[in-house]
Each structure stands twice: as C-alpha cells, then as structure tokens.
C-alpha cells in the first residue's frame, strides 16, 4: 500500500520511517519520461539530455537497490516548489564564510524552501533544525547538514598544504578520517573538502588549503582525503560526504588575486589542473563544488563544458553538484548573466544541482520552468541526485541518526586523535636549511631564547578554515618547548616583533628581544604570518615576513649566536635574507592543535624531520609563477652559458628557486646509488623497473621520501623538464641500506598529444630518482613504436 503524505497530516519520525519503508518496498511509480531535453548551455535552449556513462556506482556509496523506487515515489508527491527547496542550500547564522544575502533560514526550513543547511553543527542545533524540516514540512524530507571540515573539526591537524608536505597518504587519510568522525558526531553529513586546486602561485592565499603545485602528488592526496572523509560506506555515522572543490582551476587566478580570472590552454587545464578532481571523483567523492572563477570566459557555475561534458559525460560523476557561496549570483558582475533569473537558468542548465546561499533557484527557478527556459526533467534529475544522497545517508530512516549526544561526547578530541594530530604535524614539517647541524638542539644548549610573534601564540597555530577548532586550546611553541626542555634548561621568551603589516617600521619590542637573547646559547625565532593572512580572500603581492620580523632577525644576528627560524605560515614565503643568514630553517606551516609539542619533538630531535616541499619557494615574487615542472624554452639558461645574453633569464635574480619542490632535509644523511633500469627500451604495454639503493649514511634513524621523475625529451608538443611519477617513504636505521624500485610503464608517460588524444609517444625519455626535484642527472630510456 502506498501512503500518500498529505499537508494536514503530521507524521512522527516513526511514522516517517514506516512510510519510508512502505514506499521503499511498495509499488514502483512509473519513471517520468524525458519529456523535455536538458538545455546544454546558456543560450542553447534545448540540447541533449545528460547521459551519464553507465559506469559502476562507487563502492563506498553502497548498493541500494530499493532507493530508486523510493525516490520515484517521493518525487511523484512533490510540488515544483518543494523540489526547488531541495536544491537550495542556506547558511545558518552561526558562522559566516561569505557575504550574507539571506536571513531567516529557520522560517525557510519550516516552509520547505531549503534542502540543506551549512555552518550549523552540534547535536542540539542540528536536531533543532532537523525537527523543523521533518515535523514542520508537508513531506518531512530531512535536511542535509554541511560544513567546512577541512583539516580537522575540533582536533586540528596541520593546514592541508602542510599535510601535503608529509607525502604520507596513510597519515593524510587518517587525518580526514578523524575529522569525519568528529564532524559526523556533531550532526554533520557533508564536508566541503577536499580542496584539490593545483596552485603555482603563492600570492594566492588559498594555496594553504590545497596540496600544492603538483598534479601527481595532488591527485594521490585527493584520493586519500576522499577515502578518509567517506570512510567505509556512505551512511555510516562516522563518515561525511566529501566535496571535491573548487571545480575547476580556481588555483590559477591571474596575478594570484583571489576570485580573479582564470584563462589557460585546454591542454594545461586537462593535463595539470583537472586530474586531481578526477582522482577524487574516481575515489567516490559524493559531491562536487563549482568555483568562483571564470574559465575561458565562462564562470564555472555556468559552464556546461565543465559540469556536464567533463564531469558527467566524460567522468561519469553520479553525485550532485553544489555551487560555491553565491557563485550563481556572481555571474552577474562577471558579466555573464543579465539578472538572477537568467543566472539560475544558466547554472541549472549547465549542471549545477544545488545553489549555495544565493537563493537564486528559490526565487526564480519556478518562473523559468513555467517559461520553458528550464525543463522539468532538468529539475527532476537534480532533485533525484540530492534525495538519493539523503537516502544513502539513511536520513529517511532516521533523520537524527548523525545527531547523537553520546557519540558527540565520546568522539571529540580524544587522546588518540590528539596523538594522531601530533604525528601528522611532525611529519608535515620541512627542514629547509640546517647549517652545521645546528638542529636538533644540542644537549649543551642550556639557554634558549624563544623570540617572535608566533612563539607564544595559540590562535595562529591552527591556521584558517579551522572548523570548530578552538583558538585557545592549541599548545603554543613556548608551552611545547618549555615542557620538553630538560631540567636546567631555561627558555627566555620575548615577542619582540609584530607580524602585522602596519608595524613594518616599528622597533619597540626589539630591546626586550635582544635582552632575552643576549646570553642565549641558541635563538629560536618563531616567525611567519598571522593565521588569516592565508586562506580565502587573503592574497598578497609581497611574500616577505610581514611587519618588522625580518628587521628583528637582523638585529638578533648581530649577537653572533646560532639562529633557528621556525617558519609558521600557510604559503611559501620569500625569505632570501633569512635563507642566507640564519643557521637553520624549519617550515612548520600551521601545525594544528598539537603545534608546540610537535615543533618541540622536531627541534629536540625526538622526531627526525622528513617532510618535503609540495610547492616551490621562490626567491622573490618576481619569479612567480615558479614550479619544478616548467618547460625548457628555446633559449634555456644553463650553467655552461652563464652570463650570456639572449637567454631565458632574469638580470637581477637567479632563475632557480630558493628551495625547489620536493626539497627537505633530515638530521641524518641519505645517499643514493646511481639509478639502474632493467630495460633501456620498452614497448607499449610494457614497463621497466628503476632501482636505486638508498643508504642512511648518518647517525640517526630517519625517513626519506624517494621521488621518481621523468622527462619526455621530444614530443608532438613540448613537455616539462620533469614530471613526478611516483614516490615512496622509506624509513632507515643508521647505516641501513634499501633497494627502492619503481615501475614505469608507457601509461606513466601519457599526455595530451598535439591532436589532444591521450597517450604516450615513442621516443627518448629520461628518468630521475632522488630526494628532491632538483636532480641534474637522469638515466635515458626509450619507448618503441
Ligand atoms: C569557499 C568554499 C567554502 C564555502 C562555504 C566559500 O567562500 O570558497 O571553499 O566551502 O565558502 O563555506
């Protein structure tokens, strides 16, 4: 028997469960035919319907044979207004992550105008809002709760760029897993992560949220994060739906200014920028978020090329697409839409299912359907995708299943989570320089001067997009170092300097800092950026240490004592003076809740640093964009041609970066044997094995990230001077050696050829193995026809 839910009937959750199961097991409604085709793009009123390739549903989504008929039944009862409600996502007023255009979300929920809410969490509040939806609306369709759980929810892990520096896929997956457990325990269903935007421009503040400059590393990390967030199965109450964002190419804004125009060749887009999104989709990401930028003149939220042709037709994505915050509305200032109504039509017809915070669908879509500008089928396809995700989450069975007070209590900031956060933080740190082995701190260093605006800061330690991470809970460097310092070691702290732009010329704290440092055996300077100087809307034109920090470093240098700079920031900074003048530099990013403990672990040598840069550090902003996989050009500036004119070079700077992608030192020394390959020629379908012997020739146990790069010497289009194709993390005891092998097949050599077909081309290649991307000598092999 089919239960029809009528407006006047108020059903309890139990009844809802009953009706849901009856509907699920009941009569299948006839599927509505594709009466009207889905318009393909703005200006093209009618185009072919979206045919998603019939590939398998990602295993993590679970097999739900009865779901289709359940959703059919439900949709058969929905009015157009109720359907549009399911495509509407509004923020609560708890947190603001963008401009607020619409208030009154509770009334909207009760009126059935909203399908999902973000920036609301906690068991109590999600229950309160869910109740409005399931008890106050005619069809009692539960809400979906989303939130930016990016690098932790309450237990904060290092910022995403920092985690990427660990190159540790297991640790990164675990960090996402724990974040999901914490978030899901507070009533959340959905995170707006992972952010997988490749970026080669450190001026852009959002580099802190991604995995850096490299497509291969970024793709592997994207998969790990999706797996971590979504866990074993969507619907488990310790999992969150993942959102791969921001689709697409948001990380390449002109001049590094956030939200700015993106324009690149199709080859660059497909080869460099799209693969991490694809990797996340293939790993089962349930949702995709559009980006703010335009691409080739079309804003992403109105791009049927991106959202339909690539995402659905080529990649077979079956989840739903959400916009970024008011990005449909923003198609008006972009100059792509004349008004909101047209913007909404362009967005839904391009393939946007859910409108985040713009209320454009809510206000205009019904009219667009009435006018025939948007087909009923297009609305139904989008609604189905949203309802199916709610079904998979089990919300029709129990809308409150993620909001469980016991789980909320038990699953937040547990000792095991904090320990995991400490572990990832240590793994993420990159030892950029260590002259005369000044690190780890010697036992003889009895007086440590800890100086700088980040030395006693808690708030900065968790960086931006820090979810519900407390800014008073993190362990500061001062606390961590004092707690670890042996008896008899004094730690003299002085703030000394400021990281605020406005304080650039000031010197008022210098005297205090000099007094704290004058009798020290070693100076540890904790400097970098204020936490909000990276993240969204945080682009810079100057990447130096802000404020008067460098000036203080110069003062401290006059004391003639060893200086260790602990750099805390969310992007590669330009620090040429420090690079030349301080003894050691440890890039610690924003390490998270356990910051001070993790930094102390590394400074005192309890943990031997193993991180490698996921992004090149330029010498100056003038070199940007600078990345390891650049092209050679027709006039490369090589060592043999030093000083010559008419070559691709700067007059006032070296071409080389301060530190390249893949760079990172250890307290021990790793030596690499010459690379050998078992075949010098491979044929299509074959692979060669490259072998290197890695030896820990130092005195401490350590971990090395062994990297494999290739170069295609001649192609139908020019190829980068190096491309990362694999890496392995190898732990070795002092004196220990290990043979490390990599398999390289023709698939690893594929690219978009001149005719834009994908595949390798026969010819000569070079292969490089080492502990950085800056490897001058490779071994040659060839791919035969
Ligand atoms: C950001 C997204 C984020 C969204 C919701 C936007 O401003 O670009 O990354 O997920 O806000 O908070």
TrEMBL record:
<dbReference type="InterPro" id="IPR017853">
    <property type="entry name" value="GH"/>
</dbReference>
<dbReference type="GO" id="GO:0008422">
    <property type="term" value="F:beta-glucosidase activity"/>
</dbReference>
<dbReference type="InterPro" id="IPR036881">
    <property type="entry name" value="Glyco_hydro_3_C_sf"/>
</dbReference>
<dbReference type="InterPro" id="IPR036962">
    <property type="entry name" value="Glyco_hydro_3_N_sf"/>
</dbReference>
<feature type="domain" description="Fibronectin type III-like">
    <location>
        <begin position="704"/>
        <end position="773"/>
    </location>
</feature>
<protein>
    <recommendedName>
        <fullName>beta-glucosidase</fullName>
        <ecNumber>3.2.1.21</ecNumber>
    </recommendedName>
</protein>
<keyword id="KW-0326">Glycosidase</keyword>
<dbReference type="InterPro" id="IPR013783">
    <property type="entry name" value="Ig-like_fold"/>
</dbReference>
<keyword id="KW-0732">Signal</keyword>
<dbReference type="InterPro" id="IPR001764">
    <property type="entry name" value="Glyco_hydro_3_N"/>
</dbReference>
<keyword id="KW-0378">Hydrolase</keyword>
<dbReference type="Pfam" id="PF00933">
    <property type="entry name" value="Glyco_hydro_3"/>
</dbReference>
<dbReference type="InterPro" id="IPR002772">
    <property type="entry name" value="Glyco_hydro_3_C"/>
</dbReference>
<feature type="signal peptide">
    <location>
        <begin position="1"/>
        <end position="33"/>
    </location>
</feature>
<dbReference type="InterPro" id="IPR026891">
    <property type="entry name" value="Fn3-like"/>
</dbReference>
<feature type="region of interest" description="Disordered">
    <location>
        <begin position="38"/>
        <end position="57"/>
    </location>
</feature>
<dbReference type="InterPro" id="IPR051915">
    <property type="entry name" value="Cellulose_Degrad_GH3"/>
</dbReference>
<dbReference type="InterPro" id="IPR019800">
    <property type="entry name" value="Glyco_hydro_3_AS"/>
</dbReference>
<dbReference type="Pfam" id="PF14310">
    <property type="entry name" value="Fn3-like"/>
</dbReference>
<comment type="similarity">
    <text>Belongs to the glycosyl hydrolase 3 family.</text>
</comment>
<dbReference type="Pfam" id="PF01915">
    <property type="entry name" value="Glyco_hydro_3_C"/>
</dbReference>
<feature type="compositionally biased region" description="Low complexity">
    <location>
        <begin position="38"/>
        <end position="50"/>
    </location>
</feature>
